[in-house]
From TrEMBL:
E.C. code: 1.3.8.5
Keyword Oxidoreductase: yes
Highest rank taxon of the organism: Bacteria
Keyword terms, alphabetized: Oxidoreductase
Record protein name field: Short/branched chain acyl-CoA dehydrogenase
Length: 392
């Protein structure tokens, strides 16, 4: 049986205390006003949440391998997501999609330039993969970059990019076609585009169904020039680099989903004990109690799958083992989270349909969990391939 260490449980409690004090009292207002709270992001940085997977030399916690840095990150995302999914995804994207590509593939100079502020939570970075005409087919990237002397010239567009246009965004890493391979397939590389670069525009923020307090924009690039040394990692390896990045992200999204389910369970247990009908609390009724019992089962199963996958990552297990575990965790937890919010809304009845109750916010926030970091359909495809099936 997998169990968290005493240190991890103590860390969980510290993040929960922070989330309940600094985020929970304001989450409904941020959601209502579509407000991205940069001051709270800075406080998250002060708590060390953005540095859990980074070395000490860049201001991080220096947690590696058996120290459980990735597990700690997932715990933090779960606890933030338990009170506000928007702040949970801000941390998930800030570390998994912003910091980790630079940390994993960057040169010494790139790390020294960008990581200290990112790790401290003073700035954020985005991850520009998805495009208007590509979606889950990331290999169909249409954004192009050509070398012109000692500069890359970028033209194209990205969409649904988190942490890409906030007041504290410093950098967006993007994939772009930088040539054509001998077999005729596109050569895809990763480029670092600093915020404020001429020709790079973070368009108006999306009017989203949920995650109202997170920062999400479409991006456009028109004759956008960055230095040749802004190539991140090896030329032509951008697609592979981002696929590996997504595997980490899938487990982190699983943790966010677990936080969502925990919130639904907590809210339902409290409400079912207080709400009176027919002379007693609705929790007496099997029709309600059994639905809440199902919530507990989904939550426990999802939490075990999530932290098993995180432990595999921290243990340095073979990549394919981690990749398979990540897809399983992501598929189960995200679909369970959507079901959990539907159950919670049903338990609350008419009140669940009112925005003044948090279950309505969790209901809206949950759906995107099945879409981001690879849709449920993509996860099923990856799981089938991991079983050796020749699925396309």
């Amino acid at each position: 049986m997998f169990e968290l260490s005493r240190e991890h449980e103590e860390f969980r409690r510290s993040v929960r205390e922070f989330a309940e004090a600094e985020i929970a009292p304001h989450a409904a207002r941020w959601d209502r006003e579509h407000h991205f709270p940069t001051d709270v992001v800075h406080k998250m940085g002060d708590l060390g949440l953005f540095g859990l997977t980074a070395p000490e030399e860049y201001g991080g916690a220096g947690l590696e391998g058996s120290d459980g840095g990735f597990t700690s990150l997932c715990l933090a995302i779960e606890e933030l997501g338990r009170v506000d999914q928007s702040m949970g995804i801000t941390l998930q994207a800030g570390v998994g999609l912003g910091i980790n590509p630079v940390l994993t593939y960057g040169t010494a100079a790139q790390k020294e330039q960008w990581l200290p502020d990112l790790v401290a939570g003073r700035t954020l970075a985005g991850f520009g993969l998805t495009e208007p005409g590509a979606g889950s087919d990331a290999g169909a990237t249409a954004t192009k970059a050509r070398l012109d002397g000692d500069e890359w010239v970028i033209d194209g567009a990205k969409q649904f990019i988190t942490n890409s246009g906030s007041a504290i965004t410093s950098l967006v890493n993007i994939t772009a076609r930088t040539g054509t391979r001998e077999n005729g397939r596109p050569e895809i590389s990763t480029l670092m585009v600093p915020a404020g670069t001429p020709g790079f525009t973070a368009e108006k923020a999306y009017d989203k169904l949920g995650w109202h307090a997170s920062d999400t924009h479409p991006l456009s690039f028109e004759d956008c020039r960055v230095p040749a040394e802004n190539l991140l990692g090896e030329r032509g390896r951008g697609y592979a680099q981002f696929l590996a990045t997504l595997d980490d992200g899938r487990v982190a999204i699983s943790a966010l989903s677990v936080g969502c389910m925990q919130a639904c369970l907590d809210l339902c247990v409290a409400y079912a004990g207080e709400r009176q009908t027919f002379g007693g609390p609705i929790g007496r009724k099997q029709g309600v109690a059994f639905q809440i019992a199902d919530l507990e089962v989904m939550l426990q199963a999802g939490r075990m799958l999530t932290y098993r996958a995180a432990a595999i990552k921290d243990a340095g297990a073979p990549y394919q083992q981690f990749k398979h575990a990540a897809s399983i965790a992501k598929l189960q937890t995200t679909e369970a989270a959507v079901t959990a919010t539907r159950i919670a809304t049903q338990v609350f009845g008419g009140y669940g349909f009112m925005e003044e109750y948090p279950v309505a916010r969790f209901y809206r926030d949950a759906k995107v969990l099945e879409i981001g970091e690879g849709t449920s359909e993509v996860q099923r495809m990856l799981i089938a391939r991991g079983l050796g099936l020749p699925v396309e």
